[in-house]
Amino acid sequence: MHLEIIARGERSRTWAYLSPVLAIVLTLVTSAFIFAFLGKDPLAALKVMWIDPVLTKRGFAELFVKAAPLVMIAIGLALGFRANVWNIGAEGQFIMGAIFATGVALYFYEVQNWPVWLAMIPAGILGGALWGAIPAFLKLRFNANEILTSLMLTYVASLILLYLVAGPWKDPDGYGFPQSRMFSDAANSPRLISGTRIHVGVFASLGIVILGWFLLQKSMLGFQLKVLGQAPRAAAFAGFSTRGLTWLSLLVGGGLAGLAGMFEVAGPIGQLTPALPTGYGFTAIIVAFLGRLHPIGILFGGLVLALSYLGGEKAQIALGLPAAVVKINQGILLFYLLACDLFIRYRVKIATGRAA
Amino acid sequence: MGEAMGSGALGPAMADSRPLLLGLKGITKAFPGCLANDAVDLDIRAGEIHALLGENGAGKSTLVKIVYGVLQPDAGEITIAGEMRRISSPAAARDLGIGMVFQHFSLFEALTVADNIALGLNTAAARRDLRSRIVAISESYGLPLDPDRVVHDLSVGERQRIEIVRCLLQKPKLLIMDEPTSVLTPQEADNLFATLRRLAAEGCAILYISHKLEEIRALCERATIMRQGRVVASCDPRATSARDLAEMMIGAELAAPAHARKPDAAAPVRLAVQDLSLRSNQQFGVDLHDISFAVRAGEILGIGGIAGNGQGELMAALSGEILALAPGAIALDGVAVGRIGPDGRRRQGACFVPEERNDHGAVRDMTLAENALLSAYRRRRLSRMGFIDRLRTLLFAGEVVEDFDVRTSGPRAEARSLSGGNLQKFIIGREILQDPGILVVAQPTWGVDAGAAAAIHQALMDLADAGAAIVIISQDLDELMMLADRIAVMAHGRLSPARPVAELSVAEIGLLMGGAQPERAEAAHAS
């Protein structure tokens, strides 16, 4: 007896959209079992993790502050993922964006004027795009796999960050802590709603969702990316440029991750520190797939994973659970998402035929 | 037609005294959304050459896969030499004396003939004295084969011999051949028929699958005709005309394409190819050498040749998927486009139909509307300022579906949901409705049923009548003889000079396909 995986004849669009919802429900059920196993009341624990964080105005706002970089990065990644360009290194591009933006902030430290903040935006985009350009160049010139190169460059970016905050950019008044100076007020994103940390970047993310929707769903360029991803030979037949689309995917993906890095360093944090990279670049991969590589879906996916971060913090404080609870939940979610997708595309048959 | 069914079904079978070898009774097999075999009965006697005939999607492949143990039937009985059997795998089939030569070979390019054959054998005992047995079998059946040659140096015909020898080593009682001549020259096909006749004379039954009616009439003594999963007729093909066979196959009367025109020798040249040489971008691909030809308005040029002699590379060079080295190597209506990609060539009035439908000419997982956009966005203005014009795209896709009788639920259906023939009609329609001045088509009716093929042929004729220059690259000689005004043949990456169809015989084309003439023609050219 053995298992056979057989493709289903017709694929259901309804189920394709329901799959993320189903995955979320299954994740909740599984984490309830884990809580019970750990000796906590499952329902109370679920409430602490998934409902309590957003009961206050500040907490609710925090959801958007966390979701903003996830959504921004995931939209950039979705571009590439649709075209089968597997940029796994958004984390590194995020860090490089933050580093470039910090460079501008520190260079113009004495200038107490808002153009400093404005100049940090293109710097952040440039930093991320440059970091995305390296895998693009290596892929097109040497046929190097972008999954490996972009991932490895993430570690290079982390090390550059550590070098900078421990060396040239170390805060002279920082008692030797490896971190940069706090930015001048002119270099921080304007806060928009008092009593919360909602900043311009949150709205920029919403703008990028709308732009991304036009680009991916309505434009010829979005169509070209989709064709390249699904059938590279058909793309060549149509006359779409594989090189151009690969460059575009990695430059836009890197640029948006860099922009997210800029907003992170100029907004909630306000200085460059080794604690800046918290895995947004990797979590955004889950967000992109949870959102079906569709900008609106990504918006919702970003909110769900932002909530998992907030809930994880609450769980540490209120339930005394380890910090790993966030990663565990995200991992379970990705697992169920992939499993649901598999069962939507295929069915499993138990074959009883004797193997010859 | 009803008469042919009635008399043919009983006549030869009743008179036959040879023992029954394979009996299928009520074989039924369903796939999601389609009943591939519906209560199929089939009898094959020892030593007979039996044709299995049917359109694409009629259920022939499913049936032989069941006989060869690749698929299991949902219902029905299989008897072999009178005993009821369950064939659970190809290995079980081989043990029962059933061998099969597939249309697509499963050979390792980097290994020798003997190694490849050894890999296909089940037991160590079977591998003993393999070399000498290969030589003995290949000699006695007229299948010349050197066991020490490496496969990637061999022609397609030689590769097929490996597969046949591999089957014969097991001394089969039934040999299944799936479209064996689609890759052979006429001469190679004749040799194959001689081998098959000898095998049959020794008592081996042969189940021969093909859509080439003439060769079935020449080779087979009985034919079973399938349509939509059922056996619809059985007859003696030697006593039935090709036209009747085709009509039984599609269940409707065939219309021969109407030739309205005479090519005009003074018409302007629309497509000119001059000294086109190209390195293949594939690992075992074929480089193109000094290809030159010209096609005038209203003319159809046929390019024949055995698969894998550079036709794929020529198609890619003409469509712009591979760029030529010199701009002037390809000219459309006098404009040099050698260094311009597919989009720029479409702008110049050229359209293309590649050989492979799936994920080359069309994207399987996309809707017909999206597939319409794929190549028609430029000439039919389906995008505006970089944005897709959904309405125009849907309307255009609907127009293709309507005009070319594409059987589908509508422009929002995914390409994968269409049968091969319907998708091919859609692709051809998509290109023709762009009103091209130059159309290059590879294998326009490959794997397409007779009804759809007739419709495609007529559409190509009409386009030529309207003044377009058309190039048809095809391995189907009958198709080229019927449609083309002139024919050139590709062999080893070179193209023979194009000659009017009326001056050419099938035998001559066969020689050219074997690569005999181009050298001679070239020598004549040089002197």
From TrEMBL, chain A:
Subcellular location, record wording: Cell membrane
Membrane spanning residue stretches: 15-39, 59-81, 93-109, 115-138, 147-166, 198-216, 245-263, 269-289, 296-312, 324-344
Superkingdom, taxonomy of origin: Bacteria
Pfam families xref list: BPD_transp_2
Bilayer topology: Multi-pass membrane protein
InterPro entries membership: ABC_transp_permease
One of the record's GO molecular function terms: transmembrane transporter activity
UniProt KW rRNA-binding keyword: no
Keywords from the UniProt entry: Cell membrane, Membrane, Transmembrane, Transmembrane helix
A single Gene Ontology CC term: plasma membrane
Name of the molecule in the record: Nucleoside ABC transporter membrane protein
Organism: Dongia mobilis
From TrEMBL, chain B:
Principal cellular location given in the protein's record: membrane
GO molecular function (one): ATP hydrolysis activity
Organism: Dongia mobilis
InterPro entries referenced in this protein's UniProt entry, alphabetically: AAA+_ATPase, ABC_carbohydrate_import_ATPase, ABC_transporter-like_ATP-bd, ABC_transporter-like_CS, P-loop_NTPase
Keywords: ATP-binding, Cell membrane, Membrane, Nucleotide-binding, Repeat, Sugar transport, Translocase, Transport
SUPFAM superfamilies, per the entry: P-loop containing nucleoside triphosphate hydrolases
Entry keyword Thylakoid: no
Presence of the UniProt keyword Nucleotide-binding in the record: yes
Identification of the protein by name: Nucleoside ABC transporter ATP-binding protein
Membrane topology, from the record: Peripheral membrane protein
Ranges annotated as spanning the membrane: none
Compartmental location: Cell membrane
Domain ABC transporter: 22-253, 271-517
GO CC list: plasma membrane
